[in-house]
Write a structure and sequence with these properties.
The structure is a single chain. The protein is about 30% helix and about 20% strand. A hairpin with a 5-residue loop joins strand 16 and strand 17. Strands 1-2-4-3 form a four-stranded mixed sheet. With about 350 residues, it is of the alpha/beta class.
Length: about 350
C-alpha cells in the first residue's frame, strides 16, 4: 500500500491541501514525479537521493513513484522535499513512527541532507491550522516566520537526520517547540518621512488627508517639482495603524512573493508601492505562468502610487478598472488568484 503524506500547494496568496503518494515497486531503478509537478519538483528526485544517502539511509531498489494529488492541479516549489524524503523512508520501512501522521513537513533539502528555507511558508501554515494540524516541522530558518501564527507547535530542524531522529522518539517535543527556540514576534514600525516636512501646498495636503480618511483614490496634477511625489509618499504615515489581521494579510502576500526579507518580523507599516511606468501588465496586476502577486496586491492595505501616470500604457491603466471597482484582483488562466485588495493611487 502506498504511503500518503499531506502537504499544501500555493495558489495565488492562498494554500490548498494536496496528498503526496509514495509507492515503491519492483522494476527498473528510477524515481518518477507525476501530478503536474514543475521542474523544481522534478529535480527534487536528485536532491532526495543524495540527502537520504548522506543521512545514513538507503534508496529502495526498484521503481519509486511520487504522485501529487489531485493530478489536475499545478504544483510548484521546493517545500515538498522533506515530506517526500520522509514518505520514501516510511514506505521502505526504514523509519517507523506514530508521530508522522500528526505533523506537516515543509523544507527544501540540500545534497548533504541539510534543510533550507523556502518561501510562502506563512499562507501554508495558516492553511495547515485551518484543516486541523497543530504540529509543524520546517527548517530553522523559517521558524520566526512560522511563529507569526499563534496556537501551533512549531519545530525547527537543521537536517533530515534530526527530523528522522525526532520522529522515532529520540527527542522531546518540548525541546523543539515554539516556546523554546522561536523568539517573540517582532514588529517593524519605523517611518522615515512625515507631512511636517511638506512646506506649503496646504490645500493639497488637506485633500490627501480626506482621501486617506475615506479610502479614496486621488489624482495629483501639477508642474514638475511642486511636491506631488513628496506628498504621495507621506500618505501611509497618516493612515490608521494596521490591525493584526491586516498585518498578517500583508505579511502573507510578501511571503508568497519572496519579499519577506526580515524573517519573523510582522509587517506593520502600510505598504507604499511605486512601480515604474514601464512595468508590464503582469507585474502590476499579477499572474504570469506561475501566478504571483503584482504591485497592486503588494500595495494591499496601503498605497499604490503611479508616478507619471500618463507614461503608463493604455492597456495597463485599463487593467486597473476592475480592481478599483470590485476591490478584488481576479486572475484566470492556468492558475487562479483572488484576493481582497485596496489601494490609494
Amino acid at each position: 500500500m502506498s504511503t500518503i503524506m499531506q502537504n499544501f500547494v500555493l495558489q495565488g496568496v492562498d494554500a490548498r491541501t494536496i496528498d503526496i503518494e509514495i509507492n515503491s515497486t519492483f522494476g527498473k531503478p528510477m524515481m518518477a514525479m507525476i501530478g503536474l509537478a514543475d521542474q523544481a519538483i522534478k529535480e527534487s528526485s536528485e536532491r532526495i537521493k543524495a540527502a537520504v544517502i548522506h543521512s545514513g539511509y538507503e534508496i529502495p531498489k526498484g521503481k519509486i513513484v511520487f504522485n501529487l494529488a489531485p493530478a489536475d492541479m499545478k504544483k510548484r516549489g521546493t517545500h515538498y522535499d522533506l515530506a517526500m524524503a520522509l514518505g520514501l523512508l516510511v514506505e521502505d520501512e526504514q523509519v517507523v513512527s506514530t508521530r508522522i501522521e500528526a505533523c506537516i513537513f515543509f523544507g527544501e533539502l540540500s545534497l548533504n541532507g541539510n534543510l533550507r528555507r523556502c518561501k510562502g511558508i506563512l499562507p501554508m501554515i495558516i492553511a495547515a491550522k485551518q484543516v486541523g494540524y497543530s504540529n509543524i516541522i520546517l527548517p530553522k530558518e523559517n521558524l520566526q516566520e512560522a511563529a507569526l501564527i499563534e496556537g501551533l507547535c512549531i519545530m525547527g530542524f537543521s537536517t533530515l537526520k534530526e527530523v528522522v531522529a525526532f520522529m522515532e522518539g529520540n527527542g522531546e517535543l518540548e525541546s523543539y517547540s515554539s516556546g523554546g527556540e522561536v523568539q517573540p514576534i517582532k514588529e517593524v514600525n519605523g517611518l522615515s518621512c512625515d507631512f511636517s516636512e511638506v512646506l506649503g501646498q496646504e490645500d493639497v495636503v488637506e485633500k490627501a488627508m480626506i482621501a486617506a480618511a475615506g479610502g479614496h483614490n486621488i489624482l495629483l496634477i501639477g508642474e514638475p517639482g511642486c511636491g506631488k511625489s513628496m506628498i504621495a509618499k507621506r500618505i501611509p504615515t497618516i493612515l490608521p495603524r494596521m490591525s493584526k489581521r491586516e498585518a498578517l494579510e500583508v505579511t502573507k502576500i510578501y511571503s508568497v512573493a519572496g519579499l519577506l526579507s526580515d524573517q519573523g518580523n510582522l509587517i506593520t507599516n502600510r505598504p507604499f508601492r511605486s512601480p515604474h511606468h514601464n512595468a508590464s501588465l503582469s507585474a502590476l496586476i499579477g499572474g504570469g505562468r506561475n501566478a504571483m502577486p503584482g504591485e497592486i496586491s503588494l500595495a494591499h492595505n496601503g498605497v499604490l502610487f503611479l508616478d507619471e501616470m500618463v507614461e503608463f500604457s493604455r492597456k495597463t491603466l485599463e487593467s486597473l478598472r476592475q480592481p478599483i471597482e470590485d476591490k478584488i484582483v481576479r486572475i484566470c488562466g492556468n492558475t487562479k488568484m483572488s484576493m481582497q485588495c485596496k489601494s490609494d493611487s
